[in-house]
Design goal:
heterodimer, A: 287 residues, mainly alpha, two-stranded antiparallel ribbon, 11 helices, 2 strands, B: mainly alpha, ABC transporter involved in vitamin B12 uptake, BtuC, 79% helix
Chain lengths: 287, 317
């Protein structure tokens, strides 16, 4: 019974890792930018939810559209005004500039919001229900359901809309996309906006389960990366599978080994996957 | 040896002489600043070996710093080694650690390598946090040494050594091998360079100097804990100093360390977070306006706005 409980905990957490990784994987896949500021974007989303909840009493689930919109605009501007200027530079420079953005975001958060641990605690935060001896907290379940809904919406945007086609075309062949009249600068910015929006949503949900601090993002950048690589870069299903794998690995290891090495676990997974299956669990061969 | 060699060597020797005499004249506050400056310059020069010459962007060099600091600290306080033995031990352990970690992760390229090094640093922090003999999260307290002079001369000595190694790299067959790997790794391999060995040696060298800097730091600051010696901001500083000055050059990282450490020092007298914020802003501005660093700026004698504007336009979409 314990095993089943651990399994469920892992799956519920895995959904959250999944949407973090979809955002990172999208930005990476389309623009070849590995966004070290992905964790701070999650942090920003968590703070937006925290403040709307604390100042105006907005329910964290209902304020999700506001958080998503705010992070979309933020991400759009970041790409349009800064990252579009270096997007064709060598890997090291794009990595470095997102590193700079992460440092700036973390320290601004420290200055404006202090380093205190914050938590979003709606009235139903502690309640749970039991099914056949298993305890399932409401919040975790709803968080999981929300991540599933967001993934499906995102998938529909990418597969079924003109915008999604434009993004995919730009990722495939920048010059050809431009020749067919796609405004690539705008599309890049929208892509970064979408990635940021997913990160922000993940942060909003994260804040209901774990403490929110300015430095929470560092480990989450690493985890998003691991999950994106784990599942196979550029595949939606890959990110979700990767998220579940990491969620389960963490859930099982913290029950049976102890909760002291959460990042070592994800890093160990990364090394294993890179050695044995460099293209990820569901990945295609890289061109 | 021709003029090209002995002029910089002589100039360097004079600078070192002046520096060695500095403790006699400068204020105690200034002395502390110099020790810190030398340390940051060591870290930047060490990073330059792997990140600059070899072109492998390590975002985890702080792991070597922490490993060196903790090896020296543990040997000093738990085992009872004298500092004269504990410090070299810190260097050796950091070097072996770099070589061992390097063997698997140097097979990775680009983003994968960068994130893997980030993971190494984060994992080491966690490991040290949980080990009994490193004092877990509470850290280690060193014996107190009243005089700052030993720290000053040790940092200066290590800095001279790592700078000489960088200079050697810029002139030697081995260094050219590393540069060949940076420019085109497959071509380098075809030319007969044993790329895995070269990369591992470069990474180990990087660790061999970063480690002792950590060891001296531990004894100088008298107290270390996992968050202090494995913190990301150290990585931020050392990379941006190397990039600001110019990667893959001998004097670039020194120049970067001098300029940025001075500004940071002044800012941190205002507010500590401000100094970190400044580091982040500098990264963004440097990538946008002078990605080749100050040494390129000086070499091209391009002290006009046009130089910056050209850089800004170069990689935009």
């Amino acid at each position: 019974m314990l095993t089943l409980q651990v399994l469920i905990n892992g799956i519920l957490l895995g959904g959250l890792y999944g949407i973090m990784a979809i955002g990172m994987s999208l930005i990476w896949g389309v623009m070849n930018i590995v966004n070290i500021a992905h964790g701070p974007l999650i942090m920003l989303g968590a703070y937006v939810t925290f403040w709307t909840f604390t100042l105006w009493g907005w329910d964290p689930f209902l304020s999700l559209p506001v958080t998503i919109l705010a992070l979309f605009v933020y991400g759009y501007l970041l790409q349009r005004l800064i990252l579009n200027l270096v997007v064709r530079a060598q890997l090291f420079l794009t990595l470095l500039i997102t590193f700079g953005i992460e440092v700036v975001m973390v320290n601004l958060a420290r200055i404006f919001w202090s380093s205190d641990l914050r938590q979003v605690t709606p009235s139903y935060a502690g309640s749970n229900f039991a099914v056949g001896g298993l305890t399932i907290p409401y919040v975790r379940l709803w968080v999981f359901v929300t991540t599933v809904i967001l993934s499906v919406v995102f998938l529909l945007i990418m597969e079924r809309t003109r915008l999604g086609r434009a993004i995919r075309a730009t990722a495939e062949e920048l010059r050809a996309a431009r020749l067919t009249g796609i405004p690539v600068g705008h599309i890049y910015a929208v892509t970064f906006g979408l990635g940021s929006a997913l990160a922000g949503a993940a942060g909003a949900l994260w804040g209901m389960l774990f403490p929110v601090t300015p430095i929470m993002g560092g480990a989450l950048t690493l985890k998003s990366f691991v999950v994106a690589v784990l599942g196979g870069l550029g595949t939606m299903m890959g990110a979700i599978v990767g998220g579940l794998v990491l969620g389960l690995a963490e859930s099982f290891s913290s029950t049976y080994i102890g909760p002291t090495y959460p990042n070592a676990i994800s890093f160990g997974l990364l090394v294993l996957i890179l050695i044995f299956r460099p293209t990820g669990v569901l990945g295609r061969k890289e061109q | 040896m021709n003029t090209r060699h002995w002029v910089p060597l002589l100039a360097g020797f004079l600078v070192v002489l002046v520096m060695a005499a500095a403790p006699g004249v400068v204020s105690p506050f200034m002395l502390q600043f110099l020790i810190n400056l030398f340390m940051l310059a060591i870290l930047a020069e060490s990073w330059n070996i792997i990140g600059g010459y070899t072109g492998y962007a390590s975002f985890g060099n702080v792991a070597f710093f922490g490993v060196g600091a903790y090896t020296t600290g543990v040997l000093l306080t738990r085992v009872g080694f004298p500092f004269a033995l504990a410090l070299p031990a810190g260097g050796i352990v950091a070097m072996l650690f770099a070589a061992l970690v390097g063997m698997p992760i140097l097979r990775l390229k680009g983003h994968y390598f960068a994130i893997a090094t980030l993971g190494v640093a984060e994992t080491m922090r966690e490991v040290v946090y949980n080990l009994e003999f490193t004092g877990k999260g509470t850290g280690l307290v060193m014996p107190i040494l009243r005089s700052p002079l030993p720290f000053f001369y040790l940092m200066l000595g290590i800095l001279v050594a790592v700078t000489l190694v960088n200079w050697w790299l810029s002139e030697s067959r081995f260094g050219y091998g590393l540069i060949a790997i940076r420019e085109d790794e497959d071509a380098a391999a075809v030319m007969g360079i044993n790329t895995p060995l070269y990369k591992t040696i470069a990474f180990a060298l990087s660790g061999a100097f970063t480690g002792p800097a950590g060891g001296v730091y531990a004894y100088w600051i008298t107290f270390i804990d996992p968050d202090a010696v494995f913190k990301v901001i150290i990585t931020v500083q050392l990379i941006i100093m190397a990039v600001f000055g110019g990667t893959g050059t001998v004097v670039g990282p020194l120049l970067g360390a001098l300029v940025l450490a001075s500004v940071s020092e002044w800012l941190s007298t205002q507010l500590v977070t401000l100094a970190e914020l400044f580091n982040g802003l500098i990264i963004i501005l440097v990538v946008l306006f002078m990605p080749k660093g100050m040494s390129d700026l000086i070499r091209q004698r391009a002290f006009s706005l046009r130089y910056f504007a050209r850089n800004l336009r170069e990689y935009r979409i």
